[in-house]
Design brief:
single chain; mainly alpha; Rhopdopsin 7-helix transmembrane proteins; 8 helices; elongated
Length: about 210
């Protein structure tokens, strides 16, 4: 309920001020869409199965649940990665270059994220990788057990782990470390200016934090 209400509030706010949205904010909207999609398509089945202590439905509902989880999960991860990269680029760009990230560019990026997520989600349906119940039997996801039992499952899980988890995570960490380093260097520059008036110093610090 909180997931649906919170992300619905984000989408409603974005719709109200759609003409005022900056291009990077479209990624926040996309993240809300992915989160609310996961909540609507997966949570009811997951909650009902948890109360039942066993998966409700047959193989078809299991594949559906796993497909939705993988689609929205990869989309969320890649959106977070894109947000980190854009923030890094804006932070490290001159003011004149920071406006080059247009809405069209971000829309193309969002379309790529969804196509990338959809590709990985449907690969198990066309023969590379498998979907199946989780060990506790109350939800479905990638068949992790196939990692040891099948070369097909091994190659899929390894590729997915590297391209949908490790690489985006490392990119996110690298970008935010780069931003933190930039902030640290800027703060040092402020500290080195001894004769700057207190009001101006405070204003620069507040601007830096923003």
């Amino acid at each position: 309920i909180l997931t649906i209400l919170g992300n619905s509030a984000v989408l409603a706010t974005a719709a109200k001020r759609s003409s005022l949205l900056k291009s990077p904010e479209l990624l926040t909207v996309n993240l809300a869409v992915a989160d609310i999609g996961m909540a609507l398509s997966m949570y009811p089945l997951a909650i009902a199965s948890a109360w039942n202590h066993a998966w409700l439905g047959g193989d078809a509902s299991c594949v559906y649940y796993a497909l939705m989880g993988f689609l929205f999960g990869v989309c969320s991860m890649m959106t977070l990665c894109a947000m980190a990269v854009i923030r890094f680029l804006v932070t490290n760009s001159a003011k004149s270059n920071s406006n080059k990230i247009t809405k069209n560019t971000v829309c193309i990026l969002i379309a790529f994220i969804w196509l990338y997520s959809l590709l990985w989600a449907i690969l198990p349906l066309v023969g590379w990788g498998y979907y199946g119940p989780e060990p506790f039997g109350i939800s479905c996801t990638i068949a992790w057990s196939k990692f040891h039992n099948s070369s097909n499952g091994f190659s899929f899980i390894l590729s997915m782990f590297l391209l949908c988890t490790v690489l985006p995570a490392l990119t996110i960490v690298a970008c935010y470390l780069g931003i933190a380093w930039k902030v640290h260097k800027a703060y040092q520059e402020i500290q080195n200016i001894d004769r700057i008036p207190n009001a101006a110093k405070l204003e620069k610090k507040l601007t830096l934090v923003s």
